[in-house]
Amino acid sequence: MQTVYRIGKRFSRVEKLIFILLLVLFSFPMKISGQETAEDIPQPKEEELIPSPDKKRALAIICRAGRPELWIMEMDKTQKRQLSKLGKDEGVKSAVWSPDGELIAFVSYNLGGHSPMTTTHVWVVRYDGSGLKKVTLPKPNERFSTYDPQWKDNETLIVKAITLPDLSESKYLYSYRTEKIKKITSEKEKDK
Question: Does domain 38-191 have CATH number 2.120.10.30?
Answer without folding.
Answer: yes
